[in-house]
User: What shape does this take?
Amino acid sequence: MSEQLPTVTLTDEERKRRAKEARAAKAQKKAESLAERKSRELLLSSVGHPISWEEVMDGSKLFGDYPLIQSQLCSQSWNELVSVGSLNASMDNSFVSLRARVHSVRGKGRSVFLLLRQGMDRVQATFFQTDETPEGMAKYISKLSKETVVDVTAKIVKVQVPIASATLKDIELSVVKLFVVSRAGSLPFLVEDAMVRSAHENEALENGTYTYIPNIGQDLRLNNRVIDLRVPAHLAVFRIQSAVGRFFREYLYTNDFVEIHTPKLVSAAFESSTNAFGLNYFGDKAYLAQSPQLYKQMAVNGDLMRVFEIGPAFRAEWGHTHRHLTEFVSLDLEMAIQNHYSEVLDIVDQIFIYIFENIEQRFAKELTTIQTQYPFEPLQYNKKKNLRLTFLEAVALLRQDGMEIGDCDDLDTWAERRLSALVKQQHGTDFYFVEKYPMSVRPFYTMPCPEDEKYSNSFDIFLRGEEISTGAQRIHDPELLVKKATEKGVDVAALKVYVDAFRYGAFPHAGCGSGLERIVRSYLAMNNIRKTSMFPRDSKRLTP
Assistant: This one.
């Protein structure tokens, strides 16, 4: 028979004590559970689990993925961010915050090396896991995908050995905080690979065309232009392109020109219907404008006197060459003249001198960045007045060099390039004019030369071997205009609006048009105009 245990009677005080201990144990268990959950959250954070803005703003977290930035009041830290290009060694030991892309990342154990890229600038950043840094932070950083956008707070450290892969070679960033703003997914190619210059960059083929055989094909680049644009040299190209338009506009504004905006939907193809894009306009036939030719002439004779436009032009060019696009940006000007079309040559010469000088003086960083991937020689030109040859003088030079060419033959691509090489040898310039072209190779509205009607008061401008601009004095007499149109086989009835514009008293005038992409391509000595068109359009490309 087993022994019966005595019954224990608890006092009220003992019950309270035990209940208190139970509550304490439950609280302890809850606290441990919370700590465990926080630990798991930290681990999840190391593979991209988002955190809250409150944790970011109160400093309780040093790394993680931001919530979606939707202009929340608590996320207005953008005014504290600095540009990478503004950093320098004089800021040693100071702390900065910046936003950049992950160009490359290399993790080894508890050490991580990042190359951060912001536009054309790259800076190295480092993080070393210690007992004082949050657990998992090194792993988190080392797993970042290339092209991911991050916010970094870091200490600037001056280095003794230059960092070859960075543009800021004398400093690095010691990372204190790092948050992901936007993660990059799988990439069709890497920006760092697209920065490599091909050995075939300037390979010439037959028939005057050129090919581009880079490590990453041109079509792949253009199909993914948003990534290709991130290449520092390409960013620099479009900054140069912007500068050309800016300085063109600046010079003309300061010389009493008025900027105009002309229609791009027109009722007739005034230049040639064979290379005009036709479309249905509410049941009528219409075209995309090949140039603002008619309208800038009308503006001059509407007494604006000196006008210019920067705008799109459209030409149905079937040839898939290194220099033609179906849509391009046209820099056009037209002006009343007093006596001679050389007045417009003088203006245009000074425009390009102004553009070239300002790019050299104010865009040295961009030029240097481009040079690293697409080397070219400095442009040679006269800073006061540039060389002008007549067409017959140009033909004579080519004949002396052994080329067979007639007095009224047009210059093809190879003739232009050979002529430019001869000009460079004899005159030491990459930039020059050829004037007095044969009437047979000029539009009907070009004013004939008074000394010899086989030739015209027209000109082309050459830069590094290729034509970048065409211009002329225009016929302002309506009867002569009709006569020349008839001789060229142009339908005069379709030109009624154009011809009538000169029946009410017209100023003698001249002008020219230049392709922005061509100017930039030739200035930078690039082998394909698609490098200087942000989203090029040609006979084979309509996207992106």
The two ends are 95 Å apart (CA to CA). Residues 40-48, 199-214 have pLDDT under 50 and may be disordered. The first strand starts at residue 63 and ends at 65.
